[in-house]
Amino acid sequence: MVSKRPHIKKILGLAFFLRVLAGEPVLKYNAVLKYPYYQEPTEDSYGVQKFPFRILCMLINLITTIAVSYLTKKLIKKRPNLDVLETEKQNDYEQMMMKELKA
Question: Each residue of 65-101: b (16+ CB within 10 Å) or e?
């Protein structure tokens, strides 16, 4: 996923980090972060996560993305000088272009 917003990439990094720490038997490495119901590795197999950690990582990512976007929008409305990407100007320009297309 390619995003114009750099903070989105950092949030996606958080989900990826949680996912990597959970281990992956296909890639042949054990978990560092052991979620509930973790089955310890034996001599002939790698550890297995019985907990649906992929869904948990996805939900954490979704909630974090929404929260950061909401807080960023509120912060920019309160303090426009913090808008280094000039998103408000871009939004105004897009609205102006939409009005011209409709007319």
Answer: beeeeeebeeebeeeeeeeeeeeeeeeeeeeeeeeee
Q: Report pTM.
A: 0.61
Phi-psi group of 34: left, alpha or beta (phi > 0 → left; psi -120 to 50 → alpha; rest → beta): beta
Can you give the C-alpha Rg of the chain in angstroms?
Answer: 21
User: What three-state secondary structure class fits 52?
Assistant: coil
pLDDT tens digits along 15-47: 788 888 888 777 777 888 888 888 888 888 788
3-state secondary structure 20-49: HHCCECCCCECCCCCCCCEECCECCECCEE
Task: Report residue 25: phi and psi, to 5°.
Answer: -65, -30
